[in-house]
Amino acid sequence: MASKPGKNKNIGPKLRIISLGGLGEIGKNLTVFEYAEDIIVVDMGSLFPREDMPGIDLVIPDVTYLVKNASRIRAYFITHGHEDHIGAAPYILKQLPAPVYGTRLTLALIEHKLKEHHVNDIQLNVVKPGYVVEAGQFEVEFIHVNHSITDACALAIHTPIGTIVHTGDFKVDYTPIDGQVTDLGRLAELGNEGVLALLADSTNVERPGYTMSERTVGETFNNLFAKAEGRIIIAQFASNVHRIQQVVDAAVRYNRKVCLMGRSMVNVSKVAMQLEELRIPEGKLLQADDLDRYEDNELVVITTGSQGEPMSGLARMAFAEHKKLEIKGSDMVIISATPIPGNEKSVSRVINQLVRTGANVIYEALADVHVSGHACQQELRLMHALTKPRFFIPVHGEYRHLHHHAMLAESMGMSPDNVRICTVGDIIELSQNRMNVVGTVPSGEVLVDGLGIGDVGAVVLRDRKHLSQDGMLIVVMAVDRNSGTVISGPDVISRGFVYVRESDELMQGARDAAKAVLSEFGRIDPSDWNRVKNDLREAVSRYVYQSIKRSPMILPIIVDT
Question: What's the domain range around 239?
């Protein structure tokens, strides 16, 4: 580990940059940097499952390319501790171990994940802003930036052909909670030294001006706490430690106790308190079981669920399904977050239900209860002006964000030939004078369902969606293996399709359709069972659709006796 970059190296092969996530989407950020025989990886993020992914817990990047090149991976570099940047760490490191570098809180959160998944013997190396790490022919410099989590960094990746600046997630906050501002001075130095390419956060590129300071939220909390007469329940991202601290500070000011709810909220807060990044005075922190011992005006609950996740703390409270707390009319509920693109419907559903309870519901449209951790247009312009890159690749955003960020770069004088909007899997090849997309690598989504990783694909998701929308009819019969005769059935069982007691005629018709198929076979030999099942499926499906214009999943079952 060195203190300053600057090794003289011979110029050889071209630099390759491959994003395996984070382009055209908000989440599962992972970028591969490749030079000669050396590979480094920036971030290992996950993605919230979409509404068309029933039963899926997590979406992570497809790292087939890295698996094929495992021996070339020198290190992982993590910009910060948000799930869309570290959520895939235990899954990737389990099969592709290599040293991991990041700041203190970032690695503490990763370490917690690794322990939960029983992933051992991973070398975690804590660095501070200003540190430079050697990894093969790369030298990676950590640069402090502001974000909605402590210890966030941009990266200056020094390569034999030039320096790449990867901003990570950032904003420019001149009055941050911890007093540590984005290191604009170092970014300007890099710009003067020469930046070959800039990869920059595009999330808020559609928003003009500057992102408000986090302190704005603290002022709003103080105003709201002063008016609240009952319990105060605040939903936010667990990883926003500065936000949690501001809630705690307001609670102390107004003589309220604090209770943390939600698995991720408890886990992150515990790690942050151990590192003294979060300070809760003695006697102010309550367990959920102790809530009934205090008056409503003495309580503040900080919970997960700001994105409307069905199983989150806030959603279960809203729908009276939470074991410890149920929303009531005297509560003030503050949703201190903005919906991630794609989560708008889920958030709206929870807000509507909260309003139905009679609670005073406060969200971003009504008060300054949330500020973004991402740079708006003027901050992005500042980043471009300071770094003065020769080439630019917008990252971390849906396609429209990448498009508008490319336009912003061009408005500042960059040649369109030096700007590339890429998709996941593109191989970007860089020389000192040229940037081209030269091919693709395997990429996409790997779905995590419980302990299963990648065993749920498009076919399974299609079946789940089919079942959720149309239900299922099970056609079951018993067949004597020796004689080949049907000795029982066919019986038809409905699950999620129709209420049997009110659909006698329909169910009898389905049975008759099944009997008609069986009569055509006579003796049913075991070798014919697949054909029998297919014919049953087609016949019953055709009958049901002709009768009521619905298409449930048909599942024939033959019991061997």
Answer: 215-362
DSSP type of residue 351? H
Whole-structure pTM value: 0.80
DSSP notation for 42-65: E----BPPPTTSTT--EEEE--HH
Do both 332 and 243 map to the same domain?
Answer: yes
Q: What is the identity of the amino acid at 397?
A: G
* Residues 145 and 46 placed together within one structural domain of the fold: yes
Q: Is 88 exposed, middle or buried (0-12, 13-18, 19+ CB in 10 A)?
A: buried
- Joined tokens for residue 128: 């501070």
pLDDT tens digits, 108-122: 999 999 998 899 999
Are 233 and 334 in contact by the 8 Å Cβ rule? The answer is yes
CA distance 397 to 355: 32
Helix ranges restricted to H, 322-413: 344-356, 377-387, 399-411
Q: What is the DSSP string of 166-222?
A: E--S-B--SS-TTS----HHHHHHHHHH-EEEEEEE-TTTTS-S-PPPTHHHHHHHH
Write out the catalytic residue numbers. 201, 374
Q: Which of 362, 396, 413 is the last residue of a domain?
A: 362
Total domains present in the chain = 3
* Among 403, 427, 453, residue at a domain's last position: 453
In a domain, 461, yes or no: no
Q: Assess if residue 8 is contained within a domain.
A: no
Contact 218, 236 (CB under 8 A): no
Q: How confident is the model at residue 436 (pLDDT cuts 50, 70, 90)?
A: very high
3-state secondary structure of 16: strand
Residues 28 and 145 in one domain: yes
